[in-house]
Amino acid sequence: MRLPFDTVRQLEDGLSEPSSALIDAMARLDGDIIVLGCGGKMGPSLARMAKRASDQAEVKRRVIGVSRFSDAGQKEELQQHGIETIECDLLNESALNKLPDVPNVVFMAGMKFGSSGNESMTWMMNTVLPAFVCRKFSSSKIVAFSTGNIYGLVPRTKPSVETDLPNPVGEYAMSCLGRERVFEFYCKKLQIPTAVIRLNYACDLRYGVLVDLAQKIFAKQPIDLSMGWFNTIWQGSANEMALRSFGQLDDTPIGTPFVINVTGPEILNVRDVAEKLGRRLGKEPSFVGAQSDTALLSDAARGLQLFGEPIVSTEELIEWVGDWIMLGGETLNKLTHFESRDGKF
């Protein structure tokens, strides 16, 4: 199958392309959307997707991206696509409170990479900031990104479901559970309709577990098998599921968060995937470590039932990532560290 994207611009267009289901959902949603933490890996394409879906639904809607925007080019790119941008340090509560009151909030801010050695900032971003946001947007709907890391390591034969008790490993995962508990507290206390998106490894062609594996194979570096299993999902599908979760809040009991695992349908084996990527790259992967039967794994059944299968299959993703890396496509140089079993990132 031919790689469908030759340039980053084409890739961004593909990542932000809305489905007919999302266009219908944006037609039913009332009011503007604000994306907090819009400058991360997923935020720009989510904001563009929301804007494109709204335009195609013929809904006049402001989509506002909020970030520190350390990359000025990213801010300009968003503006070119009709996204309003606001520079803001979200931990500055005074600045946060000056943001416009918007009825639909996507919370994407948080800290993972670099959290080891900077634990105090990790807890501020992941647990204190949500309290600021809930007090500011107490009359809004909130869709908050979280992570499957809150579940901890589970047997590959029993991936985590939304009703499982959390068992976080390490301070990053603990702080993410804290983030969820803060949103849950304000969901109950202030009656804020809230969705919690437990994401396991979104993938575009510039970052993700598949990219980590492909880059190691291409560079002839060994692949650690100690975390021998993983989930992944096309980033465009992950963003769509998050945006469509606004529609679930109308049917969710007041004071109870809507919680959903967002990932692909398969439990993937690291060795098998690496060998497929190796064949695509024309290179033989090498391995170190012993495979364990436990990993960070989520059961995607509920999300798939509500929102359907990802628009890009895992097999397609593997082929696309292999071709992208082989052709020297741009990457973000942001490793997932998915192989970490001690919760340190």
List keywords for this structure.
345 residues, 12 helices, Rossmann fold, 15% strand, globular
Fold and architecture overview:
The protein has a domain at 8-202 and 234-265 and 297-310: NAD(P)-binding Rossmann-like Domain (Rossmann fold, 3-Layer(aba) Sandwich). The chain has helices at 8-15, 20-28, 43-56, 72-80, 93-97, 119-136, 170-189, 209-218, 235-248, 270-281, 301-307, 314-326; strands at 33-36, 63-67, 84-87, 104-107, 141-147, 154-155, 194-199, 202-203, 223-224, 229-230, 233-234, 258-262, 268-269, 287-288, 294-295. A 7-stranded parallel sheet has the order 3-2-1-4-5-7-12, with helices on both faces. Strands 6-15 form a two-stranded antiparallel sheet. The longest helix has 20 residues, at 170-189. It has 12 helices and 15 strands. With 345 residues, the chain is an alpha/beta fold.
Q: If strands are numbered along the chain, what order do they take across the biggest sheet?
A: 3-2-1-4-5-7-12
Q: Tell me the major beta sheet.
A: 7 strands, parallel
Estimate the global geometry from the Cα principal axes.
Answer: globular
Q: Beta-strand level of the residues, as a percent range? A: 5-15%
Please state the CA-atom Rg, rounded to the nearest Å: 19 Å
Structural category is: alpha/beta
Uncertain segments of ≥5 residues (pLDDT<50)?
A: none
CATH superfamily of the domain at 8-202 and 234-265 and 297-310: NAD(P)-binding Rossmann-like Domain
CATH topology of the domain at 8-202 and 234-265 and 297-310: the name is Rossmann fold
**In angstroms, what separates the terminal alpha carbons?**
35 Å
